[in-house]
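One thing: mind reviewing this one?
=====
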Amino acid sequence: IAAARAGRVIFVGTAGVYPRGRLTAAIGTVAVAAELHGVSTAALRGEGYLPEPVVVVARTSDGLRAALTACARAAPSRPPDTVACPLAITRSAKLGRQIVAATGATLENLEAFAVARAATAAGIEFAAVLGVANRVGPAGHREWRTHHRAASRAACRLVARFLTATGRAT
């Protein structure tokens, strides 16, 4: 990221949604991340801990997030989301509830936190756009396999609208 001398980084990917009743994002919608939480499930279970210097929260750029969210209003989208980023896919409903309780997250994505940290370390503006592909839990992988391409396309369409609206593709 630093070597590319980018002015901004927009991570585009898919996410699983944590069941939250009426607040649950629908599969196929697009989310713009506000905050990303690195999650250790061992720490959540009380079987480990993260030492103090470990960063566990990354925020997206306010300006970039606002611009992407404005472009999202023309499509099925949501207000900016909090995203949990564990190291492994959560396939247990119980663990999903623990992650939500600890982070307030609405979505799960494994990769965005690392990209956010790299962009932050390089001093580069960062945002994440995620297509909702599945519900987190036992059937999540099957749902992801069914919906990930459409969810990815929806996220890419939002980024394309943003690039067209801003007139900048770099």
Notes: The chain has five helices and six strands. The mean pLDDT is 91. Helices lie at 41-44, 62-72, 93-103, 112-121, 140-166.
